[in-house]
Design brief:
The chain is of the alpha+beta class and 373 residues long. It contains 7 helices and 21 strands.
Length: 373
C-alpha cells in the first residue's frame, strides 16, 4: 500500500514538474513566422503565404496551435481550420520535435487591390500530457501590396494613342535645342548661336539650324475619387483607379515622365497621394503601391480645395490628364477654369452603358474620354 502511494506521489510530482517546466520554457528557442512570399502581386493574381515553426530546443512540442487572421479579400484555398467572415481566420496544428523545423504553404487569390497585413498571431501550446494550455500572442510586421489591375480595352488603347498625338501637337513657344528639323538661310533676326558652320562652309552662305518645337515631356495625372452619393459606388471608384493605373502604365512605357496626384486617403497615413515627377519601372511600382493603399471606404478630400491652385499653375512641357467618374459641380468648375486659360487636357471617365454625353457640361465635352465599363 505504501509502495503504491509512493509510486503515485512520484508520478504526480513528475506530472507537476513537467507542467511547471513547460510553463517556464515552452517558448524558449521557439520561432513562429507567418509571412507572405511576395512583396507585391497584381490584382486577381495568386500569392503564397508560409507558416514556419522552428523549435531549436530539445524539449518537444506535442501540439502547437498557430492562429492568425488577415483580410477577407485574400481568398485562400479551402482547408480545415479556416473560416471567412469579416476577416479570414486560420488555425493550424503542429507537432514539433526538439531541433525540428516545420514549414507549410498556403495559396491564396487576391480578389481586390489593397495593402494587407497579417493580424495578431496567437500561439497555444500544451504540456507533455496535453492537460494544460499555454498561450502567447504577438503582432507580426508582414504585409503585401495587391497592385491595381491596369485597365485594358481596345477603345481605351485607341484613346491612349490619340492622347499621344495630342501631346505631340501641343507646342510651346520655345524651340528644342536638341532636335533639328532642317537647315535654312540666315535671317537678320537669327541668333549667331544657331549658325550651322559646316553647312555655311559648304554653300558659301550663312545657314542656320531649324529646330523642332518642344512637346510635352511630362504628364500630370489628377485622380478624383469623390463620391457624394448616399451610398458609394464602389465599382465605379475601383474602375477609376484601374483606369488611372492603365494610364500610368502606358505613359511610363512611352518613357514619359509622370507626376501623380489623388485626393483619396492613404490607409496608413490618412494623407492624399502626391507622387512627384519620375519615370521608369520603379516609378510605376511607387505609384501603383500608393494606389493600392488608397482607402475608398473613407471619404476623399475635396478635390477643388486640394488641387485647384496646383492645377491652374501648369508648367511648360507639361500635359494634364484627369481621371474621374464624377460630374460633381466643383470638380467641373475646376476643369472649366483650366480650360478657360486655353489649356488642352484629357479627362478619362468610366461610365455605364446608358450614360449620355449630354450629361457632361458643354465646354468639357471635347476633352472627356468616356470608357464604357
Amino acid at each position: 500500500m505504501i509502495q503504491t502511494i509512493l509510486i503515485a506521489a512520484i508520478i504526480l510530482g513528475a506530472f507537476f514538474l513537467q507542467r511547471k517546466y513547460y510553463v517556464e520554457h515552452w517558448q524558449d528557442d521557439l520561432e513562429v513566422r507567418v509571412k507572405f512570399m511576395n512583396a507585391e502581386i497584381p490584382e486577381l493574381g495568386e500569392g503564397k503565404l508560409q507558416i514556419v515553426v522552428e523549435n531549436r530546443k530539445k524539449l518537444p512540442l506535442s501540439s502547437l496551435m498557430v492562429k492568425f487572421q488577415t483580410d477577407k479579400h485574400l481568398e485562400f484555398d479551402k482547408n480545415r481550420g479556416s473560416v471567412t467572415t469579416d476577416q479570414f481566420y486560420h488555425n493550424d496544428v503542429f507537432q514539433v520535435s526538439g531541433g525540428e523545423r516545420v514549414t507549410r504553404t498556403l495559396h491564396f487569390y487576391a480578389k481586390r487591390r489593397g495593402y494587407y497585413r497579417i493580424n495578431n498571431i496567437d500561439l497555444t501550446g500544451f504540456d507533455l500530457f496535453m492537460t494544460y494550455e499555454l498561450h502567447s500572442s504577438f503582432q507580426p510586421s508582414e504585409s503585401i501590396y495587391v497592385l491595381p489591375r491596369p485597365f485594358e480595352s481596345r477603345d481605351f488603347q485607341m484613346m491612349l494613342q490619340q492622347l499621344n498625338g495630342e501631346m505631340i501637337t501641343k507646342r510651346n513657344l520655345y524651340e528644342d535645342p536638341f532636335e533639328i528639323r532642317g537647315i535654312r538661310e540666315y535671317q537678320p533676326f537669327d541668333s549667331m548661336k544657331s549658325i550651322n558652320w559646316k553647312a555655311t562652309a559648304k554653300t558659301g552662305s550663312f545657314m542656320v539650324n531649324q529646330r523642332n518645337y518642344t512637346t510635352p515631356k511630362t504628364v500630370r495625372i489628377f485622380l478624383n475619387l469623390e463620391d457624394k452619393g448616399l451610398f458609394k459606388n464602389m465599382d465605379a471608384l475601383e474602375s477609376t483607379i484601374r483606369l488611372a493605373a492603365g494610364l500610368v502604365k502606358y505613359l511610363l512605357e512611352q518613357n514619359i515622365k509622370v507626376a501623380f496626384y489623388c485626393n483619396g486617403k492613404d490607409m496608413l497615413s490618412g494623407e492624399p497621394m502626391l507622387v512627384s515627377t519620375g519615370r521608369g519601372p520603379n516609378h510605376q511600382s511607387k505609384i501603383l503601391r500608393s494606389l493600392a493603399r488608397v482607402d475608398v471606404d473613407q471619404d476623399a478630400i475635396d478635390f477643388e480645395k486640394l488641387f485647384r491652385r496646383r492645377i491652374l499653375v501648369e508648367q511648360d512641357n507639361t500635359y494634364t490628364c484627369f481621371v474621374s467618374a464624377t460630374l460633381e459641380q466643383n470638380f467641373c468648375n475646376t476643369l472649366r477654369a483650366f480650360s478657360d486659360q486655353g489649356r488642352v487636357f484629357s479627362w478619362f471617365s468610366p461610365v455605364s452603358k446608358n450614360f449620355s454625353l449630354s450629361d457632361v457640361p458643354l465646354p468639357l465635352r471635347s476633352s472627356i474620354r468616356l470608357i464604357r465599363i
